[in-house]
From TrEMBL:
The keyword rRNA-binding does not apply. Residues 208-246 form the EGF-like domain. Residues 25-212 form the Laminin G domain. The lineage of its organism: Eukaryota, Metazoa, Spiralia, Lophotrochozoa, Bryozoa. This is Uncharacterized protein. It comes from the Eukaryota. It comes from Bugula neritina. SUPFAM superfamilies: Concanavalin A-like lectins/glucanases. InterPro entries: ConA-like_dom_sf, EGF, Laminin_G, Neurexin-related_CASP. The keyword Signal applies. Residues 1-21 form the signal peptide. SMART domains: LamG. Pfam families: Laminin_G_2. One of its GO terms (cellular component) is membrane.
Amino acid sequence: MGTCWVLCTLLLVCGISCINGETPLLSLQGTANSYAAFSSLSVCPNSQLTLNFKSHLPNGLLAYMDYENNSFIQLKLEGGAVKLRVRLSNGNTLKLSTGENLHDWRWHKVSISWSQKVTQLKVGNSFQTGSLDFGSAPDAMVPSNSLLYVGGLPNLKVLILEELSLPTVYYEPRFSGAIVNISYINCSSTPTITAPELLSYDGLRTSEDNQCTDENTCENGGRCLNTNNGPYCDCKYTSYGGANCSVGECDQIF
C-alpha cells in the first residue's frame, strides 16, 4: 500500500480529496467555521496565484492573504463575478473584476499574475488588467507569519480582528463549493510553480455533490449551503429565520 494512497485516504475522511497528485480538493460547507489555511504566498513582479473553483452561490470569499504594513490580497466571488482587491506595502492599490454567472457549479480556473507595473486577473478566457506599480521594492509583499486563507477565515479565538489589514474581510460570506489545484509562483530568481502546504482547516464536507436543488431553495435571500448533514439554509444575511428562512422577525417573537 503506497504512502500517497494512505495520505489521500486520511484526507478523504476529513472532506479532502486527492486529484491527479495536485493540491487536494477542498469541499467547503460555507458555514460559520468553514475555512482552510495554506503556507504563505510572497507577491512581487513575476509571482502568480492560481486555483480552480466551482460553486452554486454568487457570493463567497475565495482567498485572502494578509501582510505587514496594511497590505493584503482579497479574492472573492461577488454577484457571480470574480473580484480582486490588492493593496501593496507602498500604498498602491488595485481592484479588478472579470467573469459572469460563475456560480454554475462548473469548474473555473482563476489566475492572478503580477509584473513590475501590471497585474492581470484571469478566469477562463476572460481577463482584466490594471496598473499596480511595485516601485523600487522588488519584495513589496513578503509575508512573515501570514497564511493564505481559502473559503473564509478562522474564528476570532484564533484570529485577532484588529490586526488584519482589511478587518471587513472577516464578515464576507464564506465560500460554499469546491476548490482545488492551488499553486504559487513565489518571489525567486528562478520562478517555479509550487503547491502550497495545507496547514489547517475546518468545516469541510466528505463529498462534493450539490444538494441545493430547486426543491430545497431557501426563501427571502437565504443561502443554501451543502453540509455533511444535508442542505442547510443560512439566514444570516436576511431578517428571517426558520429552516427555510421563511419566518419573519415578528413571527419569531410570537
